[in-house]
């Protein structure tokens, strides 16, 4: 059988930008199958007896050989995400198991592990660049964490634990979903709907009708549950819903949906797995590939922040209680009143309409504001560019140096479509790297390309010809800046080694630094003035309105911070200082954590762990702290600009570019941070940005 050539199959044409004008779903199976075959053949060749284990002959050759598969499969995954029509879904799903199997086998291939180890132990290692050494170290680390170093007689048990853990995690979320679905509250008296927004009532009415019932049906799904907790005047309804929500998948419901035994089981297996790998507990394993170095370090970080946030949280809660008594005649504010009272207080104090704000953020104005921020900060130029596109909504841009040298390019797909995955995300199309010797391309460096995807509303009336520009909420503007931050991390890298260029190799708890950093500019008055223009009057956003937005931003930040710390601390202690075999229960531990940090303690029957899917069913086990950690890093970096007295300080911008964005994963995140800030991270900037400052 002769191989398909790029001229016959455009998915195999990786000489430049993806051929979105030519690629069709029927290209997927032949192209990906061929690339998988190529990769497998290469691995066999590189690991055959006598094959050289040097950087060039093994590590670099492997990277070169695997890149076409990841690029082509990346294109397929991207099209599946932004153009999820049946043909693309089918093409993607058909090859997904094969591709997953390839990568799973790769992670278990002991010959590859041995080759990386041979390089690490060779005299050549010392001569490799720091980025190359880091790639070797990362590979060995990942193989080790996958159990590659275990004795042969231990491997079956390790494998069995991994499989059982993934089944338990899947079961945990299934139970949670089933328990969420199992409850509903049918309200038959319209008087009990007081306070609820019209769209919530309408949805509840339709939900009841769908069941062939009259009245209003409320469920534990967010679009139904949240408005009830925020707006329903009926305390009975709130209490009822709150209790159902708080006891999901617990012993208070059907035994077959109770997550309690799964929690114990997951914790025991994680501990056993960690000990097989030579660690004391699962938290230590979780931190191996993260920026945080040790469990005590993270515990100190969380506790320090808790102490600093506490006075503000106490003030928040006192204010809330006083407001509940004075304005709402609620003598004892209960857990099911908190959301409701908070919403009333927020409205009373900082009422402004998202709809009003939205009139000021037109697409062109926001984009030019964003581009100007990037250009000023990092001394680059952004220009429209052209490329084959997957949809007419998509725009394409290039980033250049002032001298006109190309740095990278990106697609911008802003609007929601029925066939597009929800949310907003950045993805890589092409990663920067030095091209292999003998490459036919004229440029020795392959320039990075990114996809920036959002789900904002499109311009109204564009089809009828009377186009009104797309209008963004302030939250959407923040989202755009956030994703662009990820994009800049990928695009402004100067690393030549693919495996640590851009966001590759960046520690999990540090990867949100550039994205959250960019969000700060959405709260900078000079930037807001520059990037807002009322769709009808052309006026920038009024200062008074901006002040309300700022105040609302920090509403109850003390309480929110302590809540996040409570979850983080509980997660980390559960995976370190807790032995599932001991007398103390998971709930006892949670109680201890709450006594230490919480200002609001839920009722004794609350079963928070049973729905903590982040840590039991997601990838956040002993990693929930990452949210706060990354916020601290990004706020502290922004603090450097505040100290310089100018959010666009040239010198600081260049340093941020040189020490963080350009370096990416080629150096440990803590070293990048120290290089930029001249010290270790401190929580002060985040506290200040959240309004937690003692005056
Ligand atoms: Zn992000």
TrEMBL record:
Its EC number is 3.4.24.70. One of its GO terms (biological process) is peptide metabolic process. InterPro entries: M3A_DCP, MetalloPept_cat_dom_sf, Neurolysin/TOP_dom2, OpdA_N, Pept_M3A_M3B, Pept_M3A_M3B_dom. Keywords: Hydrolase, Metal-binding, Metalloprotease, Protease, Zinc. SUPFAM superfamilies: Metalloproteases ('zincins'), catalytic domain. GO terms for molecular function: metal ion binding; metalloendopeptidase activity. The keyword Protein biosynthesis does not apply. It catalyses: Hydrolysis of oligopeptides, with broad specificity. Gly or Ala commonly occur as P1 or P1' residues, but more distant residues are also important, as is shown by the fact that Z-Gly-Pro-Gly-|-Gly-Pro-Ala is cleaved, but not Z-(Gly)(5). Belongs to the peptidase M3 family. This is oligopeptidase A. It comes from Candidatus Accumulibacter phosphatis.
